[in-house]
Amino acid sequence: MFYHNIVAPSLAATHHNIMKILPRAVRIPQGRTAQPRNVRLMPTELVEVKHYAANEDESIAWFLHYLIFRGLADYKRELASYQ
Q: What ranges do the domains of the chain cover?
């Protein structure tokens, strides 16, 4: 095992056991998602996004994705209220 050269064997064994417990990462098949899109943020906005993403213990990408879908839901509700 690769970790035997870096850390103590007991720690490597613990890491190996933890990895067995964690779910396996699954890639989404090609063509199922749209191409990635860039989002331009002002430096102060990026700091704020990083802060909230860290509070949620999530990546910046996940948090931005969450915000987009939350914003879409709000937008759809607003559109429905005008009809």
A: 2-28+37-82
What is the C-alpha to C-alpha distance for residues 62 and 83, in angstroms, rounded to an integer? Answer: 32
Q: Which residue has the tokens 């937008």?
A: 75
pTM over 0.70: no
Per-residue three-class SS string for 17-71: HHHHHCCCCCCCCCCCCCCCCCCCCCHHHHHHHHHHHHHCCCCHHHHHHHHHHHH
Over residues 17-54, the pLDDT tens digits come to: 544 555 555 566 666 666 777 889 999 999 999 999 99
C-alpha pair distances (Å), 72 with each of 2, 10, 68: 45, 49, 6
Burial 20-34 (b: 16+ CB within 10 A, else e): eeeeeeeeeeeeeee
pLDDT digits (tens, 9 = 90+) for 53-81: 999 998 898 899 899 989 999 999 999 99
